[in-house]
């Protein structure tokens, strides 16, 4: 059948419009300098999805100098004429994209990269950055008023980067919504040990240096990466259920042990595997360093980092984060209660497991000890704001929310909900709305009033 002249013109016009639409959609753009997180608008980067980091770092404790080479493998989510990485203060000497030298400029903490040729949408590419300098720890009110990030110790460095300090030591898309796998190679003076995430692939001495290669084969947020270096007594083995374990403790702290870090780590890893679902990583463990200036611990993926020997409660808290925070990470930083409220509630569950106090009694102790006019009750847990994102209310009222939920829906539904949550979002990201919807689905109840009262409203909730 032949087309009429008008029909032919219509077909031609339709095809031309379709071609122009496709051309416009694939026109190259500049990748955004940030993902738009309201707490850290310029962290993370637009236009690509990070897939794998190969980090090579060499550190000299005598000069505090770091020399690094990072190769990021990423997938373009739009056609890119240029893109950014996050890197704070360190000097960049060379950038290559797909093996070819690329132009770059600096604008504050943004490294702006212009490759030779467009990076087409959906295509995988590599960017290699060679850099160096003296990393600077961050400070301010966010992390309990403590320094955090790359922190010099008497014999090396303690690296704990939540929320925004990973880019103080390697160029990255520094936001938890852009997770990737890692190979981390550390060069340090002979006699020191470099400890990182995942499992140890190799270690050897050459000349006056010790080289270690670690591989984290499960997706990881940038702030959970570490390259802690120092003198460590290392103990390895398996938990009673068979999970590999690696515990490194600074020998300076040998006589200050009030808790068996290895034994508690093994026991808690196995217990949480029964309560929260299968352990999500290849290895569990701990890094215990002598860093008194850092008044915190961090849920470093696969090996929580402690700035001193901590008590049993802290250890079980950081290990619970392997599920809540590490495997299931926040989509935006305002949802941080999904990390800290859950890990704090895990402390209550551990006390219940040990037979020392029920979670209900822990709830009442926190509730009754704070009068209605306490500033504690003025934090809106679902959006606590940047400088107070680690306020005690995020931890404690977040845990209270979970106990209130447990008492509303009952133990059977509650302990079905926790592993369902970690399974549904395993190695991914999630937000508060998704948790509420899953809680309603699992329980068969409408729960808006409960979460509105405990998460979205200032003031002391009535029981």
UniProtKB/TrEMBL annotation:
Top EC category: hydrolase
Keywords: Hydrolase, Metal-binding, Metalloprotease, Protease, Signal, Zinc
CDD domains from the UniProt entry: M1_APN_like (cd09603)
Residue intervals of the Peptidase M1 membrane alanine aminopeptidase domain: 306-454
Keyword Transport: no
Reactions it catalyzes: Release of an N-terminal amino acid, Xaa-|-Yaa- from a peptide, amide or arylamide. Xaa is preferably Ala, but may be most amino acids including Pro (slow action). When a terminal hydrophobic residue is followed by a prolyl residue, the two may be released as an intact Xaa-Pro dipeptide
Keyword Electron transport: no
Cofactor(s) essential for the protein: Zn(2+)
Signal sequence extent: 1-23
Domain of life where this protein originates: Bacteria
E.C. numbers: 3.4.11.2
The Aminopeptidase N-like N-terminal domain, residue ranges: 51-224
Family, as annotated: Belongs to the peptidase M1 family.
The name this protein goes by in its record: Aminopeptidase N
Taxonomic source organism: Streptomyces spinosisporus
Upper classification of the organism: Bacteria, Bacillati, Actinomycetota, Actinomycetes, Kitasatosporales
